[in-house]
Amino acid sequence: MNPTETITLREVGPRDGLQLVKAIVPTEHKIAWVRRAVDAGVPEVEVTSLVPPKVSPQFADAGDVAEAVVGLPGYVPSALTPNLKGAERGLALGFPKLNYVMSASEEHSLANSRRPSEASIEDFERIVEARNAGAPDTRLGAGIATTFGCTIQGEVPEARVYEIASRLAGLGADEIILADTVGYANPAQVKRIVAGVKREIGDLPIVIHLHDTRGLGLANMTAGIEAGVRFFDASVGGLGGCPFAPGASGNINLEDAAFLAESMGFATGIDFDKLMALRERVEAWLPGERFAGQLSQSGLPKGFHAAAAQAA
Amino acid sequence: MNPTETITLREVGPRDGLQLVKAIVPTEHKIAWVRRAVDAGVPEVEVTSLVPPKVSPQFADAGDVAEAVVGLPGYVPSALTPNLKGAERGLALGFPKLNYVMSASEEHSLANSRRPSEASIEDFERIVEARNAGAPDTRLGAGIATTFGCTIQGEVPEARVYEIASRLAGLGADEIILADTVGYANPAQVKRIVAGVKREIGDLPIVIHLHDTRGLGLANMTAGIEAGVRFFDASVGGLGGCPFAPGASGNINLEDAAFLAESMGFATGIDFDKLMALRERVEAWLPGERFAGQLSQSGLPKGFHAAAAQAA
């Protein structure tokens, strides 16, 4: 018997999941969300977004959230940052990991960040310098939004994705995050692009961030697993969306993603009962929001056993 | 450039999709459903179920439906049959294809058909004899329900699935249908079982019938494609269910399945606009039913082009 491999699932609900939610979620709910995710065995949580409060009032409490959850044991807390200023704030808040995100699509970059993608690469260079100078143990994830296509521009040249991945890695990224920001990816493309990025970045970990906008979220996760990726973003209840991706959509559902991984024999460390209890809590906090996912309706198969993680 | 391969998607909505629907759908709606599916380019439709009307009043009009749609050009109409009696009726109705279904799970077989699986294999032998005697051009699909697990029995021995597939093929099946009746399959298992069945049946076509009960429907379809399967059942709106599979569940969604196939470069022959119009029509016919699927909410990607089928 082979020892069981692990798949890391990062709960991004308190960040991506809240991005388009109209109601400002109380800080204590966000903190409870993170605590319960950790208690359910989720190994990483993106707990907030370090965007300017003027741009997104939902995340005006990023400092309070960070203060409450960054020191909790048993998981890796991270925060999204769109620029150097957010990164400096994240470093000051003591996050062990920060996730920078830029766009491979020029049109998405201009619409979302008001700058060309080249300027975003230069910004990452300054973020790496700030990290190296102030908190060299902080890990930097470097995310490439619209890796698989863009609602504004349509197709995104794969060569540009590979070039950006190579340069972000060369500048000092600890992980490359390939994001299907608008739900355009398909399994064949995921396998092809993961292989192409691997040619550029070697053994640097790849994270895949998927949305289920067109129903292919878990099909794409399966393709990612087959391509060797062992780290995926997901959100409780499939919450989430992008202002530039119209239509019902969200991140891949954490419950179903965990079931996918476990049913294929990968250990996730996740306790399904506790995860379902978290989902119910979040549903109660966010009345009127659309919650997706099938496992919460149907339950685990008869006789299902979670995979046991490989001993370290 | 390789010529584009084709993936055949069979609409099973008028059969599996209606199995648990409480309201009796008028015969003219069923006929319009089939006509519109054919007009949308769907290459095969399972148009009814040849179960005794006492067991399922929904399909008491099977003869009328058959009379209206069996002769339509441009597609393959088929009907499900649970036994010899249904097959004899189907042969008399002139169906060019009949889909027999039996269970690999002994407990499901007893609960659903009130006989052990061995008796079902013997019944298929009689069906083949009836076909050979009366309508030798009629193709016989042989379906193995609970191939991937069973809500009553739990695990189903893979060796039994392989044995059944081998025997059905040996008796004269033209296609083997592997059915995830209750939504227990995972992608690793799909690849493994398809490979195992192929070892038994060689080049005989395999059809995969999937339910999205636990969210893995299209992930499992992707695994099937990777394992070389080019024929899948699906239903408009993801309608459908099994009396022994509790919880919200349905067949994989035809719209999203077609998008999955086309986005991976396979031709399905399906016109998405017409398919969406059919979905809207079916939704109007079945108020209160649960309709699934993402593409109907989000639309096709910007600049999306359907794959062109390989010239014959």
Task: Give structural notes.
The structure is a homodimer of 312-residue chains. With 312 residues, the first copy, chain A, is of the alpha/beta class. The first copy, chain A, has helices spanning 27-39, 62-69, 84-92, 106-113, 117-134, 158-171, 187-201, 217-226, 254-263, 272-285, 295-298; strands at residues 8-11, 44-49, 76-81, 97-103, 139-145, 175-179, 206-209, 231-234. Chain A is built from eleven helices and eight strands. Chain A is globular. The model of chain A has no long low-confidence stretch (mean pLDDT 94). The first copy, chain A, has a single domain (8-295), classed as TIM Barrel (Alpha-Beta Barrel). Chain A has an eight-stranded parallel β-barrel, surrounded by seven helices. The interface between A and B is large, with 49 and 49 residues.
Key traits:
312 residues; homodimer; eight-stranded parallel β-barrel; 11 helices; alpha/beta; TIM Barrel
Brief summary:
2 copies of one chain form a homodimer. By secondary structure, the first copy, chain A, is of the alpha/beta class.
